[in-house]
Write a structure and sequence with these properties.
By secondary structure, the protein is mainly alpha-helical. The chain is built from 11 helices and no strands. The longest helix is centred in the first third of the chain and has 31 residues. It starts with about 25 loop residues before the first helix and ends with a helix.
């Protein structure tokens, strides 16, 4: 057959995914909006006086919003770290041969911590621990366990058995198989569980102000008790915007983990 009519092979097409420009990235804009609100709200008296003319003090000024934001982030950060550590260890334990018999017990306990209302945990902890951040830390840490345990278990169970067998076949020890094979593959699912736990705790931490902890929920609690809708609005907007910013950060971490697989 003559080669005169042979068609040349099509050239390979390279698809380049350009990164979004700075002004197209929502994370810096959301972060800037949160920072602007924290700094501007104390000086927004004319705005809220126009929106709520019946209120004598329409802007919350008992504590600086910057301090409340810091205290809120600290409370959520410490409680979420405890949830991540305890939940990850528990999830790893019940996926190992020695801990599989305890799987139902562990998952029932963490599910109980999720279904038990944080307000009830605070009410039980205050008589023993007093008012302040400690009972709030305990309530939030218990409330954030379930997503971490479920994500850890789901991620490790999603690792194909053939991959484990191949790792064992090349001479990896059980610990090496876990650290070098299973955990990297389960990392995106694990990050998703941490992400859910942290976002839940950001919203739930607002009720910690009922036991004396300083959080972004302080304007909400004071506003509800004093029938001041402006305070409630200010606290709710800041809590919601903080959750949006943190969720975007975890989205970046999830993309990075998936890219490194």
């Amino acid at each position: 057959m003559s080669t005169m009519n042979a068609r040349p092979a099509p050239a390979a097409i390279t698809v380049r995914h350009s990164r979004p420009r700075f002004w197209q990235d929502p994370l810096p804009w959301a972060s800037a909006a949160l920072l602007a609100l924290v700094l501007y709200l104390p000086y927004s008296q004319p705005l809220f006086s126009g929106l709520f003319p019946a209120l004598e003090r329409p802007v919350y000024q008992q504590e600086p919003f910057a301090e409340l934001l810091w205290q809120h982030c600290k409370l959520v950060g410490i409680s979420s770290l405890l949830s991540a550590l305890v939940g990850s260890v528990a999830g790893i334990f019940i996926t190992r041969p020695m801990g599989r018999q305890f799987s139902s017990v562990v998952q029932a306990l963490v599910a109980m911590g999720q279904t038990f209302p944080p307000v009830a945990v605070l009410a039980l902890a205050v008589p023993l621990l007093g008012f302040g951040e400690l009972p709030a830390l305990i309530a939030l840490a218990l409330y954030g366990l379930l997503p971490v345990v479920q994500a850890t278990v789901a991620g490790l169970h999603a690792v194909p058995p053939a991959v484990r067998e191949s790792a064992t076949g090349i001479g990896l020890s059980p610990w090496q198989c876990f650290a070098q094979v299973e955990m990297p593959l389960a990392l995106p699912v694990w990050i998703a569980g941490i992400r859910t736990s942290v976002i839940i705790n950001i919203g739930t931490a607002a009720i910690a102000s009922t036991v004396g902890a300083k959080t972004l929920g302080s304007p909400i609690i004071v506003g509800l008790s004093g029938f001041n809708t402006a305070y409630v609005l200010q606290g709710a907007v800041l809590v919601g915007l903080l959750a949006v910013v943190v969720d975007m950060v975890f989205e970046r971490l999830a993309r990075l983990a998936a890219w490194q697989r």
